[in-house]
Amino acid sequence: MKPKSKFVLITGASTGIGYGAAKELIRRGYAVFGSVRKKEDADRVKSELGAGFLPLFFDVTDAAAIGRAVAEVKGQCKGQGLGGLINNSGISVLGPIELLSVEEIAHNFEVNVFGLLRVTKAFLPLLGAQKDHPSAPGRILNISSVAGKLAGPYMAPYAGTKHALEGISHAMRMEFMRYGITVIIIGPGVIRTPIWDKGSLQQFEGTSYSDSLARFFGKVLPEAKRTGMPLEQCSRQIADIFETEKPKIRYAIVQNKFFKWTLPTLLPQRALDRFFRKLM
Q1: pLDDT in tens, 22-81
Q2: What is the CA radius of gyration of the chain?
Q3: Which of 2, 49, 181, 235 gives 136 a disulfide partner, CB atoms 3.0 to 4.6 angstroms apart?
Q4: Among residues 154, 158, 209, 251, which one is catalytic?
Q5: How far is CA 217 from CA 190, 195, 201, 276, in A?
Q6: 177 to each of 104, 114, 270, how far by Cα in Å?
Q7: Among 125, 127, 132, 134, which Cα is nearest to 3's?
Q8: 224 compared with 242, residue with greater pLDDT
Q9: Could you say which of 1.10.10.10, 3.30.200.20, 3.40.50.10680, 3.40.50.720 is the CATH number of the domain covering 7-193+229-263?
Q10: Does the reported pTM lie above 0.85?
């Protein structure tokens, strides 16, 4: 049996789920490479998480920067390779399909889907896709969402990327079995993170959708902030999944799971349509 590497790479580690997962894995004795885009973010996270956090400067849309990060990780891993990759980086483009430009929608796919592919392909050899890999094969956790299975109104770009991510993840799982690399889908529900404060719908004010958008997000966002799962709880679950010897293919990390996940996935789609119509 080859030893397991204690080095893990997490994309989008400056805030939210990526930050929480990094903090919990460091607490459990891992060294975490975390991708950040700004030096001030790297300095802040390093000061908060300590020596176990190793910042990498790259954007998942920048292939050249990712290539430089691969070389840096290879040097710092000291021949061990990576024990895991958590593809967490993501953005959410919100708004009506009719009013969003194709370029805005494409940008969501560029980050959430093609960014994940760039990073995974670049770091695959360090996870075990190479001859005479020095450590046990690593595992890949792809952070999806409940939106990877359920789509709501005004979230088409984001839901589309997460549906795509899940399909790609299933193919990855089967293809990477040849190397012993495990691929797991993580589908969080609403988690209390700063993502709920980042979206802006000002560009749609004065349009025919403005009243409906105000009603929908006026109900959804306050409820999300109030009832979302605490980040620490989500982080513990992600770390537990990462360390599970024989993990499931997909995990839903959802607060009040029966009503927020199980029931909606069992209801007929038309019933969900009526529910969303009332919110809109």
Answers
A1: 999 999 999 999 999 999 999 999 999 999 999 999 999 999 999 999 999 999 998 889
A2: 19
A3: 2
A4: 158
A5: 14, 14, 9, 11
A6: 35, 22, 38
A7: 134
A8: 242
A9: 3.40.50.720
A10: yes
What does the alpha-carbon distance between residue 231 and residue 3 come to, in Å, rounded to a whole number?
31
Distance CA 242, CA 257 (A): 20
The amino acid present at 49, given as its one-letter code, is: L
Cβ neighbours for 196, distance < 8 A, ≥ 6 positions apart: 221, 224, 225, 228
Higher pLDDT, 199 or 89: 89
Are 253 and 187 in contact by the 8 Å Cβ rule? The answer is: yes
pLDDT at 194: 72
Q: How far apart are CA 5 and CA 136, in angstroms?
A: 7
pLDDT score for 196? 65
Q: Could you tell me which of 91, 11, 113 has the C-alpha nearest to residue 58? A: 11
Q: Helices marked H in 135-268 — which ranges?
A: 156-176, 210-227, 231-243, 257, 263-266
Q: Let me know if 154 is a catalytic residue.
A: no
Sheet strands (E) in the chain: 7-10, 31-36, 53-57, 84-87, 139-143, 182-188, 250-253
- Looking at residue 9, what is its pLDDT? 98
- pLDDT tens column, 96-130: 999 999 999 999 999 999 999 999 999 999 999 99
What is the per-residue pLDDT for 198? Answer: 64
Rounded (5°) CA angle 174-265-12 = 55
Q: What's the CA gap between 268 and 173, in Å, rounded? A: 29
- Confirm if 33 and 73 have CB atoms less than 8 A apart: yes
Specify whether the CB–CB gap between 201 and 155 falls below 8 A.
no
